[in-house]
Amino acid sequence: MINPLLALVVSKRREDLRRKEVPVPTAAGSTDVIFLVLRRMRPPLLWLVGVFTVSVVGLSASGRTPFTCGALEAARAAGATTIAVVSVTDSPLAALVDHEIVVDVGPEVIAGSTRLKAGTAQKLVLNMISTIAMVRLGKTYGNQMVDVVATNDKLRARIRRIVAVAANASDAQADEALAEADGDARVAIVMLGGGVDVVTARARLATAGGNIRKALAG
After folding, report:
1. According to the 3-state scheme, what is the secondary structure of the chain?
2. Which of 14, 34, 144, 169 has its CA at a distance of 20 to 30 angstroms from the CA of residue 6?
3. pTM greater than 0.85 (yes/no)
4. Beta bridge partners of 140
């Protein structure tokens, strides 16, 4: 899921335009300036699509925000899969994307304040999309996050608990496996769950594309 990276690219291009004193559009701004921004986005988008399977998610409560429409047009032209999350039916964005998710929450409590109902509902949709993506990418095992990088004592303790629960092991066993696995929770879980050494665990995970469940089955 590359939408955060797309957002970074968009933000960077908007900042470039500001430094050149070119008017930057608001949500209802100039289509000409939007075109300039999106033209600069095209090279990085083409690179991403050439290297990764790219999906770009655009958010718009109204379904017609010019900048979002332009960004999704550019993404689709570059070959990315495009998704729109909107809060109205039959929106202009629907005609531009491969997939549309409509979260129709009705009128806002405060007219025009789409950060309330629409924004909250769309955030829940994004939570579901990102969670499903992490599950499909093998970043979880059961209900445990297993792709955690331990950068402090709190996270090291969390990884120990994750490995112990996932592999039905003691804390001591988890610590030993993690030490051999250089702190990699997925490798440690496969070692303990599959009864294999660290080399075999790494090889199984590589073959399984990092998916613990597949690695344990194979």
Report:
1. CCHHHHHHHHHHHHHHHHHCCCCCCCCCCCHHHHHHHHHHHHHHHHHHHHHCCCEEEEEECCCCCHHHHHHHHHHHHCCCEEEEEECCCCCHHHHCCCEEEECCCCCCCCCCCCCCHHHHHHHHHHHHHHHHHHHHCCCEECCEECCCCCCCHHHHHHHHHHHHHHHCCCHHHHHHHHHHCCCCHHHHHHHHHHCCCHHHHHHHHHHCCCCHHHHHHC
2. 144
3. no
4. 145
At position 143, the amino acid (one-letter code) is N
pLDDT tens for each residue of 178-188: 999 999 999 99
Contact call for residues 121 and 114 (beta carbons, < 8 A):
no
Tokens coding 196: 């294999």
The structure tokens 């300036």 sit at 33
Taking the CA atoms of 63, 65, 69 and 72 in sequence, report the sign of the dihedral they define: negative
Share of the chain above pLDDT 90, in %: 47
Classified by CATH at the fold level, domain 3-136 comes out as: Rossmann fold (3.40.50)
CA atoms in the 13 A half-sphere facing the CB of 1: 17
What are the extents of the domains in the chain? 3-136, 141-217
